User: Fold these one by one.
Assistant:
Number 1:
Amino acid sequence: MCQKLVSLLRGNVRARVSSAFPERVLNVCAARGIPLRDPRFLGAEELAFSVDRRDWRRLKAACADLGAQAHIERVAGVPFFFGRLRRRYALLAGAALCAALLIVSACFIWDFQVEGNESVPREKILRVLAENGVRRGTFAYAVRQREVRNRALLDLPELAWLTVNVRGCRATVIVRERVPKPEIVNEAAPTNVIARRDALVTDVRALDGEARVLKGATVHKGQLLISGVVETRGVEHPVVGTRYLAGKGEVYGRTWYELSTKIPLYGELKRPTGEESHAYAVLWGENRVKFRIKEASNLSTECDKIIRRKQWTLPGGLATPVTWVTETYLPYDTLRVERTRESAEELGRAALESYLASQLGAGGELVSARVASAVKGDWLLVTLSAECAEQIGEAVPIMTG
């Protein structure tokens, strides 16, 4: 492989020699130090082999001394390639211009890579950087990292740290998100525990404060369950009459829900027409040049749009400012499909149970459920009646002022 590469760099000539004694050509070449590769006898008086470009004249002189005739079958290699371009001035000028453009474009930013973001969207970070002067087409050596960082962090309070590293045509944005400050809870603040909703109490666990309900009692929303105001008059504390405590505890109860939702008795189904249209565009930095967009814009029906972008890169992963965009349009017709009552009722049940689970929270449990439905025009009214077990206590502050 290495020898073949060296041969292409030097230039390779495939020669055919006609002689009454072809073996003498081999002997003369060996005597004069002309290296031959891949020799093959094509007949009794013909011989083919490969030589380097620089040895062709010596081979031709040796054949002339023997009265043999040497012809060129084919040539290959870098010297012959550039030799064919020697008189094509426009092509050489275009190649030189392309090389100059690539060298100049390597001084600008054409590609961005964001690292370290989890909750902050990549698009938001790039938009803030663009507002501060770092965008596609920005001169790479004009980016002042300290100024960009200080200004961008003011517009991105979710970030604690940001830096922009420019290497070639690519800018790598490395961020560190800010850790949210934990909520400070005053454990000593006086509070009451009240009921979040109507329930039948099944268990009372008063950790601090005084329980005001018993197991088996029926409570209403907003009713006091555990009081943080405790009367302490007596022999042990004759002076202190009332103490304010941080009412803490858990009160469990059985609750009942009745939820309703409407589900349509019909649905829409996409049916592809089988047609396919394409539109192409070239992005040069922030500029866009469209091709064949007329064919895609004359679609009479609704369609799905698929966009594929491919940025052109040079060997070694060097990004260029050119991005090829392919837009594929897939037209479809919309069909109205009837939905059975059973399937509509199942959809409604799943939606209501999901909403109920969000209301119950982590400690809630669905004990039993019953689903009823009624047809109203093109809609099905689905009603979920559920019995649940959950923690109904909610702490509220006591106004002592």
Number 2:
Amino acid sequence: MDWIISLFNFDLDAFLELAGSDPFSAMWYLFTHGAWILIVYIILWIAAHAWKEYVSGKAAGKREWILLKVAIPGGASEQTARAAENMLITFAGGHTTPSWTETWITGFAQSYFSLEIASIEGKVSFYIFGERRFRDLAEGAIYAQYPAAEIQEVEDYTQNIPSHYPDEEWDAWGTEMIPVKEDPYILKTYPQFEDKVSGEFKDPVAYMLEFMSRLGKDENFWYQIVITQTDHKGPRERAEKLINKIKGVKEEHKKRLIDHAVDFPMNVAKEAAGILLSSPSAAPAAKKDAKQEFPRMFALSPGEKDVLEGIERKTGQVGFMAKVRFVYVAKKEIIKKTKAIHTFIGAMKQTNTFHMQSLKPELKKVGMASALWFFKDKRNNHRKSHVVKAYKKRSNWMGMPQFFMCAEELATLWHFPILMQVKAPSISKVDAKKSEAPANLPFG
């Protein structure tokens, strides 16, 4: 036990003497008297997380997926976007809290769904992609809000399109939409698209659906939102920090064991430098200004109060970690990239606000960019291949990081066509509701 006692028997005078004459010996002295614990901790932390990712990847590879096509009678529903919000809230029932065994031994991967709208040569259809074990959950959620809907399992519509570019016949363009601000800020949502006087709802998705129905032969327009279930812990912590920042409430940081371990060598070095340079180790505490003590909450402008209310409204809702993708693929001789790109981005911008949240196309890492200087074609073709593969895999990790979106935001960006809002004739629809025969039919 003597070596353990000597390990933490740190002699500051000896360290300062070495620091003044031989810095390398001083670092070795610091390492042998406790700093190595931090290094070992970091190595073990990296190894543990690498193992966790490995077993999670194995578990994810064993999942069985299903693609459901959803059609509404007449191509549109009398339900509003609130029905889609309620449906998505039900999808959150797929969230699972892993056990210790699942986390570190058998592996665990959180379930997720992909909400999709695809136009294949002008034929617009709605799809929901998810694990087969959650089929009953998905169908129950849809029927609860859209009783007349028809749901059928279908083959993957993306498989007829090449994944690698450049291609001899096909060309593609795609990107992901990312938030301009931190994800606690909220987008403009469907309640704000309702006229306060007439009560008429101006559907932000209608414009995009109209364009999708006008596509011609060998044109494909795919729109996807991948939503991953979450326990809301991370989003709520981020929201609370932002709320306190806006209110002017100072947060107290509670130090953990690792924080103390990191601070120890830094504090020792700081003390040593202070003594060597004959400077005090700590400056006298500044006097608090009376203005700083006055709560900023009472001085918020109407716009700031609106922002604060939006953050709190979003934080109080069920939500998901989300990823928004768009892919346009067509034969080279007919492709209309500019028109498709502007249509999609224009539709997304309807939910943007300058004082709160906005979505923008990511063009530095995922999306194709015309401003690249070196190896422009090669780099853009690599991005095309990457984003098309990510869409086809319905990946929730490829591309940019996910960000939190509440069900109200998601329902604004993805919902079934609303009656009297969408007149596109090519939307997949059910002409008659299928039902079982009455039990009292006469026989004989």
